[in-house]
Amino acid sequence: MRRLVMLLAATAAIGGTASAQPNFNANPSFGTIALGAGFDGDPRIINVTAGGRLSAQSIDPDCRGSVANAPDVRLNYEAGSLPLIISVDSDADTTLAVNGPDGTWYCDDDTNGTNPVVRFNSPQSGRYDIYVGHYQEGSRIPARLYISEVTSAGAE
Fold it and tell me: Which of 61, 132, 144, 154 could form a disulfide with 50 if both were Cys (CB 3.0 to 4.6 A apart)?
């Protein structure tokens, strides 16, 4: 009986840890887009609501702020010779966490004032799960996600 109780406690602890991680299989809150190198309409701008209840540091120690459990946007990207620039513009202090096609997390905070920029100089083709966060856990604030091969949000 003691062994069963310990096993149940361990299972519950594992279940609690799993809930502190993003759900990659969840539908993105603001859609999935497919873009290829040289895409028209550059930059692509998507209105999102930043933030959530998940600490971005639980995703990767270098990430900051709080993010939603599901990706905000999923980008399926066919790379070419141009860089891929993912950035955010908001009146609030935002953060950015991107899970690249290789499973590596790329995070940024405050590259462009209080707005983040993740730049892939030699991007990979594949799926990018994009999380836009901020510092007021649980609060949801309006933001604009920019996907570009030539510029970042706010760059003039």
Answer: 132
How confident is the model over 11-58, as pLDDT tens digits? 333 333 334 678 878 999 999 999 999 999 999 999 999 999 999 998
Closest alpha carbon to 84 in 156, 153, 152, 143:
152
Question: What is the distance, to the nearest Å, from the Cα of residue 61 to the centroid of all Cα atoms in its chain?
Answer: 14
Instruction: Give 124: exposed, middle or buried? Use CB within 10 Å, 0-12, 13-18, 19+.
Output: middle
Contact 71, 59 (CB under 8 A): no
User: What are the phi and psi torsion angles at 26 (to 5°)?
Assistant: -70, 150
pLDDT for 78-119, tens place per residue?
A: 999 999 999 999 999 999 999 999 999 999 999 999 999 999
The neighbouring-strand residues paired with 75 are 33, 128
Q: Is 19 helix (H, G, I), strand (E, B) or coil?
A: helix
